[in-house]
Amino acid sequence: MVSSTIETDAKARLAEVVGADNLLTGDDVGEDYGHDETLQVEPAKPAYVAKPGTAEEVAKLLATATELRIPVTARGSATGLSAAARPVDGGLVISFERMNRVLEVDPVNHVAVVQPGVTLDELDKATADHGLAYMVYPGEQSASVGGNVGTNAGGMRAVKYGVARHNILGLQAALPTGELIRTGGRIAKVSTGYDLTQLIVGSEGSLALATEVIVKLVPRLPHSATVLAPFTEFTEVVAAVPKVIGSGLAPYILEYIDNLTMAAITHTSQLELGIPDDVRDKAQAYLVVALENREQERLDGDVQAVAELLTGLGAMDCYVLDGSSARKLIQAREHAFWTAKAAGAHDVIDVVVPRSAMPEFLTRARELAAQNQSGVVGCGHAGDGNVHLAVFQADPIKRAELLSAIFAEGVRLGGAISGEHGIGRAKRGYFQALEDPAKIELMRRIKQAFDPAGILNPGVLFDPIAPSADQ
To answer: Is the pTM here over 0.85, yes or no?
Structure first.
């Protein structure tokens, strides 16, 4: 927290960088700047919110914060679910709301160059006229590209197109020392030294702040179809996933949704999918398979093939949704977090395991919840083993015990605590308890190399460590 002896000086110094109109302090700092969408981490009150307009201003803000030992948290759209965008009490929020331009769409190299405050919806509109798209869709189109960088965002299309790490080719980034660096570029591969782009991606604002992002674009395919397959046994759904992946049909969405979650999202969205009552009553879970192609005839053949495959694997039937219903279902699935929140969920987690381990993991998660007198329901990116569970347990001690057991089970099966939401502050304790201590210590040394004063997002990933006097 900023000491009272330097607070006045800090305000003047920060205002000198961004201008008085772009610095909020005191009562002018709105509540929204104190939190992201995490359910179980209390908001904080930053002392300052700076709104830089250029990369150079970001670098100067960081140099000033390092000199004055002010903790810094970056903020894009604050749609994260792990409290990585929740600031430190008395700290500085660097908000990228003014750095929100698509600087260039390059159809020759299939890239776009954007500022970190650009939202996914804005980027999608800018690339549409070129017949191209950035394919990271984490479920919230108001999310910012800078947030994608911080969390290594994923989403439903990751089964075909990968996560942010596969779609971010280069960065301009500001270091806590006040330096600006460029990493990667408009190139598909690089074997020249350490890959700093990929080190910064997923670091949750703890190493450097992206001030410009080069993202990969791919052609938009004109034809798509969505197949919905209900199953009477949950294990049949997850067992079908590797068969679909191995079929060569290349779905761009492959999601499982359990029956309770499906009932909730269809009710909330007032969505009618045309499934007979007797089928819906028997279904324990659903598989959603979305396909795309350049040609309608080939797409029709793929739809027929996937329907035959799924019915052979135990699906009660297969329903090809019309365009409107398909869009509404995908949108409802993307907004499953809000549905869970409205239903009173106490936490939402996103463990990732190998696809082959999904049946065992989900079975164990349900068993552990029952033993804990808790509820877990959910859906997930079945194509890449990313399981999203809404946890219902009001008692914080019981909830912590359950989460610890579920996370440990995921790690035991060869997975990780988070597949796309990140660790942030919300899961820091579980991360430190379950991860290899040697790896954590190495990460600490990397953090120290980037941020010797420890100003960037202290409390994210690691417990904050007070810098020594000579730093």
So the answer is: yes
